[in-house]
Protein backbone atom coordinates (compact mmCIF):
# COMPACT_ATOMS: atom_id res chain seq x y z
CA UNK A 1 0.00 0.00 0.00
CA UNK A 2 1.54 3.28 -1.13
CA UNK A 3 0.29 5.83 1.37
CA UNK A 4 1.05 9.53 0.93
CA UNK A 5 0.28 12.81 2.64
CA UNK A 6 -0.52 15.93 0.71
CA UNK A 7 0.62 18.85 2.83
CA UNK A 8 -1.54 21.80 1.78
CA UNK A 9 -0.08 25.26 2.31
CA UNK A 10 -0.90 28.25 0.10
CA UNK A 11 -2.45 25.95 -2.52
CA UNK A 12 -5.90 25.43 -1.01
CA UNK A 13 -7.63 24.09 -4.10
CA UNK A 14 -8.35 20.92 -6.05
CA UNK A 15 -8.22 22.39 -9.59
CA UNK A 16 -4.82 22.85 -11.22
CA UNK A 17 -2.92 21.55 -8.22
CA UNK A 18 0.05 19.53 -9.44
CA UNK A 19 0.95 18.53 -5.89
CA UNK A 20 -2.41 16.84 -5.48
CA UNK A 21 -2.33 15.41 -9.00
CA UNK A 22 1.10 13.80 -8.54
CA UNK A 23 0.23 12.47 -5.10
CA UNK A 24 -2.87 10.75 -6.49
CA UNK A 25 -1.00 9.49 -9.54
CA UNK A 26 1.75 7.87 -7.46
CA UNK A 27 -0.18 6.65 -4.40
CA UNK A 28 -2.86 4.18 -3.36
CA UNK A 29 -4.07 6.26 -0.42
CA UNK A 30 -3.98 10.01 0.21
CA UNK A 31 -4.17 11.84 3.55
CA UNK A 32 -4.75 15.60 3.06
CA UNK A 33 -3.24 17.72 5.86
CA UNK A 34 -2.95 21.40 6.72
CA UNK A 35 -0.74 22.62 9.57
CA UNK A 36 -1.50 25.93 11.28
CA UNK A 37 2.13 26.81 11.86
CA UNK A 38 2.78 28.35 15.29
CA UNK A 39 5.40 30.57 13.63
CA UNK A 40 2.64 32.25 11.59
CA UNK A 41 0.85 33.45 14.73
CA UNK A 42 3.61 35.28 16.56
CA UNK A 43 4.67 38.92 16.71
CA UNK A 44 7.42 39.81 14.26
CA UNK A 45 10.53 41.81 15.07
CA UNK A 46 8.63 44.87 13.82
CA UNK A 47 5.97 44.53 16.51
CA UNK A 48 3.10 43.28 14.33
CA UNK A 49 1.25 39.99 14.19
CA UNK A 50 2.55 37.83 11.38
CA UNK A 51 -1.02 36.86 10.56
CA UNK A 52 -3.75 39.30 11.53
CA UNK A 53 -7.47 38.79 12.04
CA UNK A 54 -8.65 39.43 8.49
CA UNK A 55 -6.32 36.93 6.85
CA UNK A 56 -6.83 34.37 9.63
CA UNK A 57 -10.62 34.51 9.18
CA UNK A 58 -10.20 34.15 5.44
CA UNK A 59 -7.81 31.21 5.92
CA UNK A 60 -10.19 29.36 8.24
CA UNK A 61 -12.98 29.78 5.68
CA UNK A 62 -10.64 28.42 2.98
CA UNK A 63 -9.88 25.35 5.09
CA UNK A 64 -13.56 24.74 5.78
CA UNK A 65 -14.33 24.88 2.05
CA UNK A 66 -11.37 22.65 1.15
CA UNK A 67 -12.58 20.05 3.63
CA UNK A 68 -16.06 20.09 2.07
CA UNK A 69 -14.68 19.73 -1.43
CA UNK A 70 -12.42 16.87 -0.35
CA UNK A 71 -15.28 15.06 1.39
CA UNK A 72 -17.34 15.34 -1.80
CA UNK A 73 -14.72 13.13 -3.50
CA UNK A 74 -14.24 10.61 -0.70
CA UNK A 75 -11.60 12.25 1.47
CA UNK A 76 -11.36 15.12 3.95
CA UNK A 77 -8.87 17.48 5.56
CA UNK A 78 -6.90 16.97 8.76
CA UNK A 79 -6.00 20.32 10.35
CA UNK A 80 -3.31 20.37 13.03
CA UNK A 81 -1.67 23.21 14.91
CA UNK A 82 1.95 23.40 15.98
CA UNK A 83 5.36 23.14 14.33
CA UNK A 84 5.20 21.52 10.88
CA UNK A 85 8.46 19.65 11.49
CA UNK A 86 6.73 17.92 14.40
CA UNK A 87 3.13 17.63 13.22
CA UNK A 88 3.68 16.41 9.64
CA UNK A 89 6.01 13.52 10.64
CA UNK A 90 3.61 12.64 13.46
CA UNK A 91 0.80 12.13 10.95
CA UNK A 92 3.15 10.30 8.57
CA UNK A 93 4.00 7.82 11.34
CA UNK A 94 0.35 7.40 12.35
CA UNK A 95 -0.68 6.46 8.79
CA UNK A 96 2.60 4.78 7.81
CA UNK A 97 3.03 7.20 4.91
CA UNK A 98 6.08 6.84 2.69
CA UNK A 99 5.85 10.24 0.98
CA UNK A 100 4.70 13.78 1.66
CA UNK A 101 3.74 15.97 -1.31
CA UNK A 102 3.83 19.76 -0.98
CA UNK A 103 4.22 22.96 -2.97
CA UNK A 104 7.73 24.27 -3.53
CA UNK A 105 8.70 27.36 -1.54
CA UNK A 106 10.98 30.22 -2.57
CA UNK A 107 10.85 32.72 0.34
CA UNK A 108 13.42 32.43 3.12
CA UNK A 109 11.30 31.45 6.15
CA UNK A 110 9.05 29.17 4.13
CA UNK A 111 12.07 27.36 2.67
CA UNK A 112 13.62 26.92 6.11
CA UNK A 113 10.35 25.44 7.43
CA UNK A 114 10.21 22.98 4.52
CA UNK A 115 13.84 21.97 5.13
CA UNK A 116 13.06 21.19 8.78
CA UNK A 117 10.10 19.05 7.74
CA UNK A 118 12.18 17.21 5.14
CA UNK A 119 14.91 16.47 7.70
CA UNK A 120 12.37 15.16 10.23
CA UNK A 121 10.70 13.00 7.58
CA UNK A 122 14.00 11.44 6.51
CA UNK A 123 14.47 10.24 10.08
CA UNK A 124 11.32 8.10 9.74
CA UNK A 125 12.18 7.00 6.18
CA UNK A 126 9.61 9.24 4.55
CA UNK A 127 10.44 11.54 1.62
CA UNK A 128 9.24 15.04 0.72
CA UNK A 129 8.26 15.69 -2.90
CA UNK A 130 7.73 19.33 -3.95
CA UNK A 131 6.16 20.94 -7.01
CA UNK A 132 5.86 24.51 -8.22
CA UNK A 133 2.18 25.45 -8.17
CA UNK A 134 2.11 29.24 -7.74
CA UNK A 135 3.12 30.83 -11.03
CA UNK A 136 1.73 31.42 -14.49
CA UNK A 137 5.03 30.47 -16.16
CA UNK A 138 6.89 27.48 -14.76
CA UNK A 139 10.46 28.28 -13.65
CA UNK A 140 11.78 25.39 -15.78
CA UNK A 141 10.29 26.97 -18.91
CA UNK A 142 11.90 30.40 -18.53
CA UNK A 143 14.36 31.42 -21.27
CA UNK A 144 17.08 32.00 -18.64
CA UNK A 145 18.25 30.40 -15.39
CA UNK A 146 16.95 31.94 -12.17
CA UNK A 147 20.25 33.65 -11.32
CA UNK A 148 20.25 35.38 -14.72
CA UNK A 149 16.68 36.72 -14.66
CA UNK A 150 16.77 40.42 -15.65
CA UNK A 151 16.45 42.84 -12.74
CA UNK A 152 14.12 45.00 -14.83
CA UNK A 153 10.59 43.66 -15.27
CA UNK A 154 10.12 44.91 -18.86
CA UNK A 155 13.17 42.95 -20.02
CA UNK A 156 11.91 39.87 -18.22
CA UNK A 157 8.39 40.19 -19.66
CA UNK A 158 9.48 40.67 -23.27
CA UNK A 159 11.79 37.66 -23.24
CA UNK A 160 9.29 35.42 -21.50
CA UNK A 161 6.42 36.41 -23.79
CA UNK A 162 8.50 35.66 -26.88
CA UNK A 163 10.44 32.60 -25.74
CA UNK A 164 8.31 30.74 -23.19
CA UNK A 165 4.85 29.20 -22.89
CA UNK A 166 2.11 28.62 -20.32
CA UNK A 167 1.54 24.99 -19.37
CA UNK A 168 -1.93 23.40 -19.40
CA UNK A 169 -3.88 23.05 -16.16
CA UNK A 170 -4.26 19.89 -14.09
CA UNK A 171 -7.84 18.60 -13.71
CA UNK A 172 -9.57 18.33 -10.35
CA UNK A 173 -9.67 14.74 -9.07
CA UNK A 174 -13.05 13.05 -9.44
CA UNK A 175 -12.29 10.81 -6.46
CA UNK A 176 -9.61 10.42 -3.80
CA UNK A 177 -8.87 7.14 -2.06
CA UNK A 178 -8.33 7.99 1.58
CA UNK A 179 -8.62 6.15 4.87
CA UNK A 180 -11.42 7.46 7.10
CA UNK A 181 -10.64 11.11 7.82
CA UNK A 182 -11.90 12.48 11.17
CA UNK A 183 -14.42 15.34 11.14
CA UNK A 184 -12.79 18.72 10.66
CA UNK A 185 -12.00 20.65 13.82
CA UNK A 186 -10.94 24.27 13.31
CA UNK A 187 -9.63 26.59 16.01
CA UNK A 188 -11.36 29.84 16.94
CA UNK A 189 -9.58 33.14 16.37
CA UNK A 190 -8.96 33.31 20.12
CA UNK A 191 -7.12 29.99 19.93
CA UNK A 192 -4.74 31.68 17.47
CA UNK A 193 -4.18 34.63 19.79
CA UNK A 194 -6.38 36.94 17.71
CA UNK A 195 -9.48 39.01 18.38
CA UNK A 196 -12.44 39.13 16.02
CA UNK A 197 -13.08 42.31 14.06
CA UNK A 198 -16.40 43.83 13.09
CA UNK A 199 -17.25 43.86 9.42
CA UNK A 200 -17.09 47.42 8.10
CA UNK A 201 -19.89 47.98 5.60
CA UNK A 202 -17.68 50.36 3.61
CA UNK A 203 -15.35 47.52 2.58
CA UNK A 204 -14.70 47.11 -1.14
CA UNK A 205 -15.87 43.50 -1.06
CA UNK A 206 -16.87 40.89 1.48
CA UNK A 207 -14.12 38.37 0.83
CA UNK A 208 -15.34 34.85 1.56
CA UNK A 209 -12.61 32.25 1.64
CA UNK A 210 -12.39 29.04 -0.35
CA UNK A 211 -12.07 27.64 -3.86
CA UNK A 212 -15.86 27.57 -4.23
CA UNK A 213 -16.09 31.32 -3.61
CA UNK A 214 -13.07 31.95 -5.82
CA UNK A 215 -14.70 30.18 -8.77
CA UNK A 216 -17.93 32.13 -8.20
CA UNK A 217 -16.01 35.40 -8.16
CA UNK A 218 -14.21 34.56 -11.40
CA UNK A 219 -17.49 33.54 -13.05
CA UNK A 220 -19.14 36.76 -11.93
CA UNK A 221 -16.29 39.08 -12.91
CA UNK A 222 -15.64 37.45 -16.28
CA UNK A 223 -18.88 36.05 -17.62
CA UNK A 224 -21.76 37.67 -15.72
CA UNK A 225 -20.50 41.25 -15.47
CA UNK A 226 -17.94 41.08 -18.29
CA UNK A 227 -15.93 43.52 -16.19
CA UNK A 228 -12.65 42.12 -17.47
CA UNK A 229 -13.22 43.82 -20.82
CA UNK A 230 -12.76 47.23 -19.16
CA UNK A 231 -10.23 46.20 -16.51
CA UNK A 232 -7.41 48.40 -17.79
CA UNK A 233 -9.64 51.48 -17.57
CA UNK A 234 -11.10 50.71 -14.14
CA UNK A 235 -8.14 49.07 -12.33
CA UNK A 236 -7.14 52.32 -10.62
CA UNK A 237 -10.56 52.68 -9.01
CA UNK A 238 -10.98 52.70 -5.26
CA UNK A 239 -14.63 52.03 -4.36
CA UNK A 240 -16.71 48.89 -4.86
CA UNK A 241 -16.09 45.34 -6.03
CA UNK A 242 -15.84 45.77 -9.80
CA UNK A 243 -12.99 48.23 -10.37
CA UNK A 244 -10.55 45.31 -10.15
CA UNK A 245 -10.74 41.53 -10.25
CA UNK A 246 -10.41 41.04 -6.46
CA UNK A 247 -8.72 37.72 -7.26
CA UNK A 248 -5.71 38.54 -5.06
CA UNK A 249 -6.92 36.95 -1.78
CA UNK A 250 -7.76 33.76 -3.68
CA UNK A 251 -4.38 33.76 -5.38
CA UNK A 252 -2.52 34.36 -2.13
CA UNK A 253 -4.27 31.44 -0.38
CA UNK A 254 -4.03 29.33 -3.51
CA UNK A 255 -7.80 28.95 -3.99
CA UNK A 256 -7.11 30.01 -7.59
CA UNK A 257 -4.01 29.33 -9.64
CA UNK A 258 -2.64 31.86 -12.16
CA UNK A 259 -2.94 29.22 -14.88
CA UNK A 260 -6.52 28.51 -13.86
CA UNK A 261 -7.34 32.20 -14.28
CA UNK A 262 -5.50 32.29 -17.61
CA UNK A 263 -7.41 29.25 -18.85
CA UNK A 264 -10.77 30.89 -18.04
CA UNK A 265 -9.60 34.16 -19.58
CA UNK A 266 -8.87 32.38 -22.85
CA UNK A 267 -12.39 30.93 -22.83
CA UNK A 268 -13.75 34.42 -22.21
CA UNK A 269 -11.69 35.88 -25.07
CA UNK A 270 -12.97 33.22 -27.46
CA UNK A 271 -16.56 34.19 -26.61
CA UNK A 272 -16.30 37.95 -26.19
CA UNK A 273 -13.01 38.98 -27.77
CA UNK A 274 -9.56 39.95 -26.52
CA UNK A 275 -8.46 43.54 -25.92
CA UNK A 276 -5.95 45.59 -23.93
CA UNK A 277 -7.86 44.89 -20.72
CA UNK A 278 -7.83 41.11 -21.04
CA UNK A 279 -4.11 41.28 -21.82
CA UNK A 280 -3.53 43.53 -18.82
CA UNK A 281 -4.69 40.82 -16.44
CA UNK A 282 -2.01 38.52 -17.87
CA UNK A 283 0.46 41.40 -17.53
CA UNK A 284 -0.39 41.69 -13.82
CA UNK A 285 -0.05 37.94 -13.33
CA UNK A 286 3.41 38.19 -14.88
CA UNK A 287 4.35 40.84 -12.31
CA UNK A 288 3.28 38.37 -9.64
CA UNK A 289 5.48 35.68 -11.22
CA UNK A 290 8.36 38.13 -11.42
CA UNK A 291 8.41 38.89 -7.70
CA UNK A 292 8.35 35.18 -6.93
CA UNK A 293 11.29 34.54 -9.26
CA UNK A 294 13.13 37.56 -7.81
CA UNK A 295 12.67 36.12 -4.32
CA UNK A 296 14.12 32.86 -5.60
CA UNK A 297 17.07 34.75 -7.11
CA UNK A 298 17.89 37.03 -4.18
CA UNK A 299 16.78 34.85 -1.24
CA UNK A 300 16.46 36.84 2.00
CA UNK A 301 17.82 40.15 0.63
CA UNK A 302 14.26 41.40 0.07
CA UNK A 303 13.80 41.41 3.85
CA UNK A 304 16.82 43.66 4.50
CA UNK A 305 16.60 47.44 4.47
CA UNK A 306 19.08 47.69 1.59
CA UNK A 307 17.04 45.19 -0.41
CA UNK A 308 18.86 44.07 -3.54
CA UNK A 309 20.76 47.36 -3.82
CA UNK A 310 24.24 48.24 -2.63
CA UNK A 311 25.19 48.48 1.02
CA UNK A 312 25.63 52.27 0.88
CA UNK A 313 21.91 52.90 0.41
CA UNK A 314 20.44 55.45 2.81
CA UNK A 315 19.25 53.78 6.00
CA UNK A 316 16.04 55.25 7.40
CA UNK A 317 15.58 55.46 11.15
CA UNK A 318 12.56 54.17 13.03
CA UNK A 319 10.05 56.51 14.65
CA UNK A 320 7.20 54.69 16.38
CA UNK A 321 5.09 57.81 16.87
CA UNK A 322 5.19 58.70 13.18
CA UNK A 323 4.53 55.09 12.22
CA UNK A 324 1.39 55.04 14.37
CA UNK A 325 0.03 58.21 12.74
CA UNK A 326 0.38 56.40 9.40
CA UNK A 327 -1.21 53.19 10.70
CA UNK A 328 -4.17 54.99 12.27
CA UNK A 329 -4.87 57.35 9.39
CA UNK A 330 -3.81 60.48 11.28
CA UNK A 331 -1.01 61.87 9.13
CA UNK A 332 -3.03 64.90 8.01
CA UNK A 333 -2.83 63.80 4.36
CA UNK A 334 -6.47 62.98 3.63
CA UNK A 335 -5.73 60.62 0.73
CA UNK A 336 -3.18 58.63 2.72
CA UNK A 337 -5.39 58.64 5.82
CA UNK A 338 -8.46 57.38 3.95
CA UNK A 339 -6.49 54.49 2.47
CA UNK A 340 -4.91 53.58 5.80
CA UNK A 341 -8.31 53.54 7.49
CA UNK A 342 -9.64 51.23 4.80
CA UNK A 343 -6.74 48.87 5.44
CA UNK A 344 -7.14 49.04 9.22
CA UNK A 345 -10.91 48.45 9.16
CA UNK A 346 -11.28 46.00 6.27
CA UNK A 347 -7.96 44.24 5.61
CA UNK A 348 -7.88 45.48 2.03
CA UNK A 349 -6.74 48.45 -0.04
CA UNK A 350 -6.63 49.20 -3.76
CA UNK A 351 -3.41 48.94 -5.72
CA UNK A 352 -3.44 52.70 -6.25
CA UNK A 353 -3.81 53.21 -2.52
CA UNK A 354 -0.97 50.82 -1.70
CA UNK A 355 1.46 52.69 -3.91
CA UNK A 356 0.55 56.02 -2.39
CA UNK A 357 0.70 55.02 1.26
CA UNK A 358 4.00 53.19 0.71
CA UNK A 359 5.49 56.22 -1.01
CA UNK A 360 4.29 58.45 1.83
CA UNK A 361 5.84 56.26 4.53
CA UNK A 362 9.17 56.02 2.72
CA UNK A 363 9.58 59.47 1.18
CA UNK A 364 7.44 61.83 3.28
CA UNK A 365 7.84 60.26 6.72
CA UNK A 366 11.33 58.89 5.93
CA UNK A 367 10.65 55.68 7.83
CA UNK A 368 12.13 52.20 7.43
CA UNK A 369 10.05 50.63 4.65
CA UNK A 370 10.16 47.22 6.32
CA UNK A 371 7.78 48.42 9.05
CA UNK A 372 5.26 49.24 6.34
CA UNK A 373 5.76 45.84 4.72
CA UNK A 374 5.37 44.11 8.09
CA UNK A 375 2.16 46.02 8.85
CA UNK A 376 0.77 45.01 5.45
CA UNK A 377 1.74 41.41 6.28
CA UNK A 378 -0.41 41.62 9.40
CA UNK A 379 -3.36 43.43 7.88
CA UNK A 380 -3.85 42.34 4.30
CA UNK A 381 -6.36 39.61 3.54
CA UNK A 382 -4.42 39.05 0.30
CA UNK A 383 -0.91 39.08 1.76
CA UNK A 384 1.60 37.26 -0.44
CA UNK A 385 5.16 37.16 0.81
CA UNK A 386 6.83 37.67 -2.59
CA UNK A 387 4.50 40.35 -3.94
CA UNK A 388 4.32 42.26 -0.66
CA UNK A 389 8.03 42.49 0.09
CA UNK A 390 8.94 42.82 -3.59
CA UNK A 391 6.53 45.72 -4.09
CA UNK A 392 7.62 47.49 -0.90
CA UNK A 393 11.30 47.19 -1.84
CA UNK A 394 10.40 48.53 -5.29
CA UNK A 395 8.65 51.54 -3.78
CA UNK A 396 11.52 52.16 -1.36
CA UNK A 397 14.02 52.27 -4.21
CA UNK A 398 15.87 49.14 -3.05
CA UNK A 399 14.11 46.66 -5.34
CA UNK A 400 13.48 46.28 -9.06
CA UNK A 401 12.56 49.86 -9.98
CA UNK A 402 15.19 51.00 -12.53
CA UNK A 403 14.34 54.65 -11.70
CA UNK A 404 15.26 54.27 -8.05
CA UNK A 405 13.19 56.27 -5.59
CA UNK A 406 9.72 56.95 -6.99
CA UNK A 407 7.92 59.55 -4.88
CA UNK A 408 4.18 59.99 -5.35
CA UNK A 409 2.58 63.41 -5.03
CA UNK A 410 -0.36 62.19 -2.96
CA UNK A 411 -2.51 65.29 -3.44
CA UNK A 412 -2.04 65.16 -7.19
CA UNK A 413 -2.88 61.46 -7.08
CA UNK A 414 -6.02 62.23 -5.08
CA UNK A 415 -7.12 64.81 -7.65
CA UNK A 416 -6.59 62.30 -10.46
CA UNK A 417 -8.04 59.15 -8.88
CA UNK A 418 -10.54 60.61 -6.40
CA UNK A 419 -11.42 63.86 -8.17
CA UNK A 420 -14.83 64.22 -6.49
CA UNK A 421 -13.52 63.14 -3.11
CA UNK A 422 -15.97 60.25 -2.82
CA UNK A 423 -13.38 57.80 -1.57
CA UNK A 424 -12.02 60.19 1.03
CA UNK A 425 -15.50 61.09 2.24
CA UNK A 426 -16.36 57.39 2.52
CA UNK A 427 -13.46 56.50 4.79
CA UNK A 428 -12.85 59.73 6.67
CA UNK A 429 -16.43 60.18 7.86
CA UNK A 430 -17.18 58.98 11.37
CA UNK A 431 -18.86 55.58 11.59
UniProtKB/TrEMBL annotation:
Its cofactor is (6R)-5,10-methylene-5,6,7,8-tetrahydrofolate; FAD. Residues 2-136 form the Photolyase/cryptochrome alpha/beta domain. Keywords: Chromophore, FAD, Flavoprotein. One of its GO terms (biological process) is photoreactive repair. FAD binds at residues 231, 244-248, 382-384. One of its GO terms (molecular function) is DNA binding. Binds 1 5,10-methenyltetrahydrofolate (MTHF) per subunit. May have a photoreceptor function. NCBIfam families: crypto_DASH. Belongs to the DNA photolyase class-1 family. This is Cryptochrome DASH. It comes from Anditalea andensis.
Amino acid sequence: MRTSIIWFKTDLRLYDNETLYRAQEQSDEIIPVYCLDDAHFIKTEFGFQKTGTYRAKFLLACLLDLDKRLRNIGSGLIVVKGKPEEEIPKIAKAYNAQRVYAKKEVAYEEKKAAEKVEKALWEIKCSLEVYSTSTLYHAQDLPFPINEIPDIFTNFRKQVESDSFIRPVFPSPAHLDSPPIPDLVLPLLGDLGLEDAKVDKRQAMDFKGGESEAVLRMQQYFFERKAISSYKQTRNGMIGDLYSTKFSPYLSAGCLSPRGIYHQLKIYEEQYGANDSTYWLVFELMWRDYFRFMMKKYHNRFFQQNGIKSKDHHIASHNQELLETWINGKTGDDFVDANMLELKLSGYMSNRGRQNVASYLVHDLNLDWRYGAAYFEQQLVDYDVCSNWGNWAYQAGVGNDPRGKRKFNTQKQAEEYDSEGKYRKLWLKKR
